Amino acid sequence: MAELRRVLKPGGRLVVGEFADRHYVPLVTLLQYAQASRFEFCARLGPPLAYYAQFRASA
Q1: What's the rounded Cα separation, in Å, for the pair 45 and 48?
Q2: Are 8 and 54 within 8 A, CB to CB?
Q3: DSSP label at 12?
Q4: Domain range list for the chain
Q5: Average of per-residue pLDDT values in the chain
Q6: CA distance 46 to 29
Q7: How far apart, in whole angstroms, are the C-alpha atoms of residue 36 and residue 20?
Q8: 3-state DSSP: the chain helix, strand, coil percent, rounded to 5?
Q9: Are 14 and 54 in contact (CB under 8 A)?
Q10: CB within 8 A of 17, min separation 6: which ones?
Q11: What pLDDT was estimated at residue 32?
């Protein structure tokens, strides 16, 4: 997440798609990673095990 944040300009958008597999990352964990990398959570779409999460790179 830190590298994704580095290459996005302030206000840039990141969408992460997650589907239940052996590398599944729960949304709560993704939110922790995003917050640590200065992303703002915008929206989530889909059921718990197959979701899309949208983030914005904060300034």
Answers
A1: 9
A2: no
A3: -
A4: 2-57
A5: 95
A6: 17
A7: 24
A8: 25, 35, 35
A9: yes
A10: 51, 52
A11: 98
